[in-house]
Amino acid sequence: MDLDKAIYGRRSIREYTVHAVDEPTIRRLIDAAVHAPNAVNEQPWTFTVVRDQDLLDRISHEAKSYLLANLTEGLQSDRYRTLLRDPSFQIFYHAPVLILISGTAPGPWVGEDCALAAENLMLAAYGVGLGTCWIGFARSYLNTPEGKNALGLPETAVPVAPVILGHPKTLPAPVARKEPEIHWVG
User: In what order do the strands lie in the sheet with 131-134?
Assistant: First the structure.
């Protein structure tokens, strides 16, 4: 896969087929993730793979309740509240796999390290014809004792990147990008 093609072609996928993703493919994607740059080569991450739809449904329900109880007012809060109250909305979009990348060691850059690993994983998934989406709605709940317990995470784990994975039903059209603000110094 051409790197430019992956960067410019990857989209957040929110509709998946029911086809499973096999373990060798998941391992290959995690291998791509662990080759991400990380501060002082600490590699402070762990990967939790969830393929149990009943568990994903339960976590979705609990995360929605948690988010509704803790939603702060802001530009998108009414839109989010409506979405989260919809009983048919499942935050993982019924994807066949969730890969949660969590920090395993305290440090000032663990979030950035896990985010870089997530980007490698998502680009590698696109390269083999799979779709992904980072599920921001899941992170705050998964950082609670209840969320960590649901996935068997130690209390010291820091969930950073909940990434769903599967075979896309359709590929979304490109999204227009704003012209970047660039400040040249010197």
Answer: 45-50, 97-103, 158-166, 131-134
